[in-house]
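Lab notebook, bench 4. We co-purified these components, and the gel suggests they stay together. Before we commit to crystallization screens, I want a quick structural picture of the whole thing.
Request: model the full complex, all chains together.
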Amino acid sequence: MTDTPWDPSMPILEIDQLSISFFTRMREIPAVMDFSCKVMPGEAMGLVGESGCGKSTVALGVMRDLGKNGRITGGSIRFKGRELTTMTEEQLRQLRGSEIAMIYQEPMASLNPAMKIGAQLIEVPMIHQGMGRAEAMALARQIVEDVRLPDPDRILQAFPHQLSGGQQQRIVIAMALMSKPALLILDEPTTALDVTVEAGIVDLVKDLGRKYGTSMLFISHNLGLILDVCDRLCVMYSGEAVETGNVAQVFDKMRHPYTQALFRSIPLPTAHKTSRPLVAIPGNFPLPHERPNGCNFGPRCDYFAEGRCDQADVRMSALPEDDRHASRCLRWSEIDWDAPLAKVVTKEKAAIGEVVLKMEDLKKYYSVSSGSFGGGDEKVVKANETLTFEARAGETLAIVGESGCGKSTFAKVLMGLETATSGSIRLFDENVQSTPIQQRNTDTVSSVQMVFQNPFDTLNPSMTVGRQIIRALEIFKQGSSDAERHARMLELMDLVKLPRAFADRMPRQLSGGQKQRVGIARAFAGGAKVVVADEPVSALDVSVQAAVTDLLMDIQRENGTTLLFISHDLSIVRYLSDRVMVMYLGHVVEMGTTDQVFQPPYHPYTEALLSAVPIADTRVIRKRIVLEGDIPSAMNPPPGCPFQTRCRWKDQVPNGLCDREMPPVRQLQGAHQIKCHLSDEILAGMEPVIKLAGE
Amino acid sequence: MLKFLIRRISVMIFTALVLTFVVFFLTNLPPNLEKLARSEGSVRMTDDAVASWIVENGHGGPLLGRYAEWLGLAPGWTLTDEKGVTRGRCIDVYAEAGSAPTFCGILQGNWGISTFAKEPVGDVLGRSLGATGWLMFWVMMVMVPASLVIGILSGMREGARTDRVLSVFSIASTATPEYVSGVILLAVFASVNAGLSPLLRDWGLLSDRTLFYGTATSAMDKITFWNFALPVMTIALYGIGYISRMTRASMTEVMTQQYIRTARLKGVRFRDVVLRHALRNALIAPFTVIMLQFPWLLNGVVITELLFNYKGFGWTLVQAAGNNDIDLLLGCSVVAVLVVLITQLISDIGYVFLNPRIRLA
Ligand SMILES: Nc1ncnc2c1ncn2[C@@H]1O[C@H](COP(=O)(O)OP(=O)(O)OP(=O)(O)O)[C@@H](O)[C@H]1O
Ligand code: SF4
Ligand code: SF4
Ligand SMILES: [Mg+2]
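Here is the predicted assembly.
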């Protein structure tokens, strides 16, 4: 091998003007253009940007694993001074896994389902260091311990499907660390995981990076996570790096309009909607082959200057007074970066009206049989336990909790897709509890509607958008003639702020955000009184999320709709809801107004949830509470308090009460209620999890 | 696992009963019985005589009862005629009227007498199954490794030249039915005046009349490469094409999985990526297919055995059907049903074994 000596003061990874294209039958798709970045030893470099901007392509380019149709078309990648772009397969093979390791988004898919965990781990040192089997196994055991997995011996003998998602991701990390690589590439390592699990993984990655002195390239679309993990960051837009610098500078002294717009479009749990309204980035992300002339961000940029920004390609220019801070904007020095937001009209909140929905002691149990060939014991999964609450007209009630806590079951019961096991649901005093949706009258059906998580699955791909909305109107018996329904459809298009011309488009011709708008239009077609939005924005890009969120709130304001907003994203919940209900394993553990829930006293689970949310604000000081272990299975919940297996306050409750007895629902001030045994004094002494520096 | 086995086996027995009953019903339709009466008795029997022959030889009475007799769950029929001679299902088989057992169906090992071979059905079946067993054995020996290797080689680098060449071969071979490929093979390798043999003879490389034997009858006594290769290839070719396509599809899919990329980016050699990471996952689907091929191969066996005049199971089946040999036909169907069901069971068990994600209660 051509080993040019490399001294540790040089960058580990140096990417210079890298361009990568994918070649399809139709055209060349330039996925990455003129991308440069440097990662120093021990440094963690973040790569942020919206979906499709080329983050993964950069990572795979470094690994030289671009598949059959991907090719590096220009530039260089140097790893420890050695040129990667011209290496032979054999040289690359020796580098991969030993010096550069990569971790991807979906842990389950990255582990071989037919091989034991141990066998997959020991492979790495056996290949690269020629280590013996027993020795490798001992090392694997130690690393599994390092990634804080319980019972390493059992885990080494397990198959991937026997572990939870979080455990699998830890194994993938362990695998990457087996030969102590100099560079670790993490491609959205936590996107598929719950926030509390994510917090644990992020902590682990940071600690291990420090312990082994590994440099990292950390890819994420979540600015908060980048702030948590990285020293430096690089913002990508449409295949280019638009701004790079150290994290503090880019967060507090951004010098590119896209970065600024990105920060303005994400909600922060520290700020209230009135003090810091969200500003969506107008327009859509250009496809790689439809990029505009000149600056790629031009068409969406507030500072666009005709005749300048749309001429030649814009180059990266260094900001002289800062530390390796650079921006790809012609006008960075002219823009007044501290100018306050153009006054956004703060809209009056609709008055909260009558109670429209009332649930009492609602329970939903599923009985499932274990064993894949039928038979086995019947087990009961308690998806929802005694839910009691009411929602009023014009109110937004958020339901938060991690996967499997019963949020979606609750939505299904309310929608009538499932019947409740017991309890009652009253809608305008009509008891709809056990009426399946086929038997509900159209009035009830049209007054409770749902917006789904994934806009891609819920639209009929072979029907125009307008037709689908008209179908919904027909089902809800709206309008008396076709002409009337057509007119109403156009009104709905206006309502969701889609151009009327889009009525003739097919769903595939729309972007994700636009599809979600169509979904919202359909939900409101019948003049819904209650809309259940199940993670309506989590599948969308940050810049689009803000627009869709605002849209929902606008419609609510106009129609006085009751919005049940199901989400795991506490930032957005803080931003738009009036009241919050926190669920854990089917139980409502805390409920109150948004301010009550976001401030102490907390339920211990809410506290942990809040502390796990990554916040993209350098001023925030967060107390880290990392929950140990995974969420217990709903099939066999722990005895006593459902949260007792992970609760850090448990020992403050005398006599091991938490292990034995289900805590009662307690009323605190106002309508704030908590399901916990903790005494009033301890609750009163709780400190806020999120604080602004200097507060 | 035990519970699973018990359940599977009881389902199997039930299916076997239903299927054999259907066959029993079809072979015992009145026209068949009349034909039997005329061929066993006399061709010129009156219709009345035929009817009484049928009753006197135990083919009368309710169908279900006769089915139970045949199974050996009901006592065999007996009949004492006016001369005082007692005949019966079991007595015909075991000479002495007095010492004959009451039950004598297939469960007691009594499969009846073949009217065509004039031998107990058990013997005929045993002999022909043995012959077919050898044929199948060699077919499997050729087919399974060949098709897996072809499938894996073409699937590991989709679209590469190896893939394209092998794919053409396997598509061509599945598209050719046995009676076509058999005839082609015969023409090319075993014809006195066509194909390779005359050429080789002209060059003095061949002293026999043909390169391979055109019939496999001699393989009944001693299997040699020259008398067996053609029938084996005839059956295997089709299967090779089919299974290798399956293996290829499954392999290409596995090769695009994330965990293969993980392995590659761990620095695993390409060879080991294929052998250690892809192979087992890629074999899950074809394994089932291979097992399900077994019963299907019976089909090819019939054609091939006829073509090569090899007196195996397929040949016997055709003779039994052609000669209205009810007992033999029934025996053949029992065997066929059992083969199908047992291979299915093995395929299920193997699937569970290969795929750790399926855990048994
Ligand atoms: N194999 C491929 N063939 C053709 N185009 C591709 C291929 N892989 C990626 N692309 C295109 O390259 C661009 C960059 O994709 P990439 O996967 O790098 O985005 P990303 O930033 O990682 O997005 P995400 O956040 O969704 O993971 C996209 O426009 C994508 O459609
Ligand atoms: S170059 Fe012009 S269009 Fe591009 S980001 Fe800067 S100001 Fe906006
Ligand atoms: S009841 Fe006990 S275990 Fe449950 S949340 Fe309260 S303190 Fe924790
Ligand atoms: Mg990606």
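Residues 270-307 of chain B form the longest helix (38 residues). Worth comparing against the SEC data before the next meeting. Chain B is about 70% helix and 5% strand.
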